[in-house]
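Hypoxanthine phosphoribosyltransferase structure dump, as promised
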Amino acid sequence: MCTRMLILYQLHNVKHHEVFLTVLFDIQISDNWPGYSLDLFTYPQHYYGDLEYVLIPHGIIVDRTERLAKDIMQDIGDNDIVVLCVLKGGYKFCADLVEHFKNLSRNSERFISMKVDFVRLKSYHNDQSMQDMQIIGGDDLSKLTGKNVLIVEDIVGTGRTMKVLLNNIEKYKPKMIKVASLLVKRTSRPDGYRPDYYGFEIPDLFVVGYALDYNEHFRDLNHICVINDHGKTKYRV
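structure tokens r here:
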């Protein structure tokens, strides 16, 4: 299909009467999307005053993740896979995605063997992306040789971090590499990289919640929210 079909469904903001449009294969949140008022949701009291608004409610994340799992399983077919989770931000998305994989496999005529491994990266200091990415954890990547690898990430911004990781993994000659990211950020500095699967395309905002952090804070927030200046100052290191 050459053109994207809009309006698989619409989610209306009760307060602003704006819409957030789903397109075929992905959900794009426009730059002028005002988000949801924090007053419409529950969230930890220790973050009161630190957030601007809710960008993506938890229930929508859960539903979208389930659909991504179905799409990925259809593409994988009967191939066994190694799921490589990028810590720490990707752990919640990865855990939910893998749980959906297991449910789909249990209810299917075919069984897919699945192993989960982890790698930890560092590419942000406060809210600024660093020039050099650090691989500061993870098991021996040589175990990926000849394997079908699905990298699970929380967010792809410029794409530079993921390209560095992919270059490192490709040295070990895996049979296949696919990338699934919960979020893709529209930035003014794109590096020409797009993951194979992603849940939401979002504006160039610093977001927290659903295990995405700001200096280790906000991981316990279920919704994906936009942090405000007060929150950045409060938790800056």
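The longest helix spans residues 58-76.
lmk if u need the other ones
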